[in-house]
Specification:
alpha/beta; single chain; 22 strands; 6-stranded parallel sheet; 7-stranded mixed sheet; globular
Length: 559
């Protein structure tokens, strides 16, 4: 018997660190780690010790004998991965990093943001016994994408926040909620009071399609819809007209599938999740019966992860429809499948889609239609969204080996009552920092923020997470990303390139309280968190989220 990693894998590689036989791959030291949609356990190497099960922060690992029938496909995913990436014994001697032995007990670091990337950076710094870590978050609650980006019907993925709670008890860590850099405090002031600043502000905006009709009423960014149903205070008052029967989603990544699943889900099932109450009320009144998800390239290039597709195919109350001709293996796809360099996850995408296209109709009352090789050319309607114009694409191989979608003369009009644009998140400029507008990131090299003109590092300024690398990877991917950034920072500190702090931490805390009197601490957040959970018990839900700042402040003031 061996263990198997399932859909809720967060990719933070905690399991890799405790495995005594190195059977979990890809590891953070392997090239494919940052691109992997999930981790895998080699059944030939696994010794059934269960160490990974105890360590997994999201309860994603099961014994093979305990798998449900709907989870058995993960055995195939495991086998496929190790067929392409056989386990090899690495006899190389690890590089000795002398700077790791340095004394960091006088190092003060500011972390801007409080999502997974920020907390992973803070945990890493705390493990090096630094003098102080000040975390700043503009919202009155922490956890960023883990709270506002993960779908409410994926509760195990949210459990990663339990890993971060330990920081709240550390004397050298302080959380400042309700403090916005650029408004309550400047970048220059952060540098004045700390040896270094790490920016982990994520990617809170959305990429645009740049087509006619994109801003018609009824055309929405999927990022806003996700934030709305997850109770983000900035989006709680958004309105989405769900009175029609068909929604069209442009883009086919994990967010697109999340939106489709929430739109089609039975409100009774959502009522047992932590979905925002206003969203639950709206979805109970929704008339959406069909969601069409449109991807511009082929199924092999679909941006969603295989576990998300498997989850959809296992839902009995939703019929998943794929056109056989759109998932058929064309010349370009066949060339990829024949290549020994093609990832096993790509082969699995093709296999799952073709199998789904061949299924008999289930007769379910709601339909999810997955379209491939189509691009929108316009979103049309007199006053509101009424239809989407699509063009069929053919696939070609670019000179660099990438797959390119080339439009043909085959066009189609697709009726739509509401449209969600889901073509990716995008970072926003940070006051006081350079910004790469083309990529939507802060320019950096391995986390060291650089001057875009001189291409040299700016002393004491670092980035991690999506503002560093763009919106790629899953929550746990940020652990390796943050570790790389912290390593750069510690190397610079050990080399003496960071100047010593000029002011004690109480000086900046006094400054913050003067400019933002309602600043909240980790203890304050614990009160809010407890109140949400207690409200959840009454409603038989994990929690009932506060979605406005006043309600949260009332909880804190009432203590």
């Amino acid at each position: 018997m061996s263990f198997v990693i399932l859909q809720s894998c967060c990719n933070d590689a905690s399991c890799v660190a405790v495995c005594p036989v190195d059977c979990i791959h890809p590891t953070p030291a392997e090239a494919g780690f940052m691109r992997a949609e999930m981790l895998h356990i080699d059944p030939e190497t696994c010794i059934d010790c269960g160490a990974c099960v105890d360590e997994c922060p999201v309860d994603a690992i099961r014994a093979e004998e305990d798998l449900l029938e709907s989870d058995e496909e993960y055995l195939t995913l495991n086998a496929d991965y190790f067929a392409v990436h056989p386990v090899q014994t690495d006899s190389a001697v690890p590089e000795r990093k002398s700077w790791r032995k340095s004394d960091f007990s006088s190092l003060y670091v500011a972390v801007v943001g409080s999502g997974p990337a920020a907390f992973y950076a803070a945990l890493d710094l705390q493990s090096r016994k630094v003098a102080g870590i000040e975390m700043f978050e503009r919202l009155p609650m922490p956890y960023g994408l883990a709270r506002f980006g993960v779908a409410p019907d994926h509760p195990s993925t949210k459990a990663v926040t339990d890993t971060f709670r330990s920081l709240g008890k550390k004397a050298n860590f302080n959380l400042n909620l309700g403090v916005e850099v650029g408004q309550h405090i400047s970048h220059a002031e952060l540098l004045e009071h700390h040896d270094a600043v790490i920016y982990a502000v994520g990617a809170s905006s959305d990429r645009r399609l740049d087509i006619a009709g994109e801003d018609l009423p009824g055309s929405h960014a999927a990022t806003e819809f996700v934030a709305w149903y997850n109770g983000h205070p900035d989006y709680a008052d958004r309105q989405f007209d769900l009175s029609g029967e068909r929604a069209v989603i442009i883009g086919n990544g994990n967010v697109a599938l999340d939106v489709a699943r929430i739109l089609l889900a039975d409100p009774l099932s959502l009522a047992s999740t932590d979905i925002a109450q206003h969203a639950l009320v709206a979805l109970r009144k929704s008339n959406i019966r069909e969601v069409t998800v449109v991807g511009r390239r082929g199924v092999a290039q679909a941006a969603y992860a295989n576990p998300e597709m498997l989850a959809l195919l296992s839902m009995e109350d939703i019929e998943v429809v794929l056109a056989p001709d759109e998932v058929a293996t064309d010349e370009v796809t066949q060339a990829l499948l024949d290549s020994g360099d093609t990832e096993s996850s790509v082969r699995a995408k093709v296999r799952f889609a073709q199998a789904a296209a061949g299924r008999e109709p289930s007769g379910a009352g709601k339909r999810l239609v997955l379209r491939y090789k189509h691009s929108p050319t316009s979103i049309d309607g007199l006053e509101v969204v009424e239809r989407v114009q699509l063009v069929r694409n053919r696939l070609e191989l670019g000179s660099d080996g990438s797959v390119i979608a080339v439009p043909t003369d085959d066009v189609e009009t697709l009726h739509a009552d509401v449209v969600f644009r889901s073509v990716g998140y995008r970072g926003l400029p940070v006051p006081g920092l350079p910004f790469d507008d083309d990529r939507g990131v802060v320019p950096n090299v391995n986390g060291r923020v650089i001057d875009p003109v001189t291409r040299t590092p700016i002393p004491g300024v670092y980035a991690t997470g999506w503002i560093k690398r763009g919106p790629t990877g899953v929550i746990g991917t940020n652990k390796k990303c943050a570790g790389e950034t912290v390593d750069m920072l510690l190397q610079d500190y050990a080399a003496g390139t960071l100047r010593a702090s000029r002011h004690p931490l109480n000086a900046i805390r006094e400054l913050i309280h003067e400019r933002s009197p309602d600043v909240l601490t980790f203890n304050d957040w614990n009160l809010i968190d407890r109140a949400e959970r207690e409200a959840g018990k009454v409603a038989a839900r994990p929690r009932v989220k506060f979605v406005d700042v006043k309600s949260m402040m009332d909880v804190v003031r009432a203590r």
